[in-house]
Automatic annotation (TrEMBL):
It comes from the Bacteria. It comes from Polyangium sorediatum. Residues 1-18 form the signal peptide. This is Lipoprotein. Keywords: Signal.
Amino acid sequence: MHVSARPFALLAALIALASGCGGHRPAVAPAVDLAAGPRAAPPETEADGDVLVWGKQGDGRPTTYRVAGDGRVLGEEPGIVIATSRGELAWREREAEVKLGGCEDGAPPANLEPGTVTHVWLAPRDDQPRQVVVDPGDDGEGVGELSHRVELLGSVGPYLFVHEDVYVNACGAHGNTSATFKLWDAEAGKEIDLLRNLPNREALARRAEPLLDEGDMDPEEARQHEDLPDLVQILPVYGERGGLRVDAQFARADCYACSDGLWSGYTRSVIVPSEWTPERFAPWSTPPVAVVKFLQSRPGFALGGWSRR
């Protein structure tokens, strides 16, 4: 189940999954093919202008810095801002309450707490027009608890790595968490799929397999897995000087009690370096001098991404 921005689809599917327990294990999300063809960004030079760098220091909130070619900070603002050929776009989030139907027949209890969902969009600073990145809908029928979160794992130029997880208690033996991933192209204003293009996917899955076996609560069951783990997510990782690598997360179905909490309930997962840089990420694989000097001046800064018009 790969989640798109269609209203109601996410919550309805999760309620159906969470209604069961025990042997009913939700399948790991397959990728939906929405990919456009490779589109490399124009080459960049030090004379192309300022760079936007975002990230955070320690446990602080994300901050975006405008950095000159020589590494000087020209300005900063809270939050995440991405530079594109269409202008600068800010990452916006809004948490909304969802009225829940509850698990009882008839009217829900008066003291039933509402659920929460997170809406996400990209927009210029005047907030119009906007790109809707996550629209979870508001269907809480037959649900006793609901909590939906969105995390921006990182960005590569205009490409945003978006992780969602939803906890739902839909009146089964226990609640369940389901996770999804999407790669958002802020230039095109749409989701794209690169998971299926991972060239060494099978080899990486085989590398992930023994790592999953090591921490399995039931070694005997671990040996019985016949299928390779599924690729569920890719994420950018930046080194101390801003060099980029792409990691791949693999997951496989397991019992609810065996889940490690790193992906959905009923799964265990591991992250391994993919040794792959998609063609469309090439212009951002090597950081410019501005980014390198900025990072050198801020030890411990966790780089989330950088971009330039």
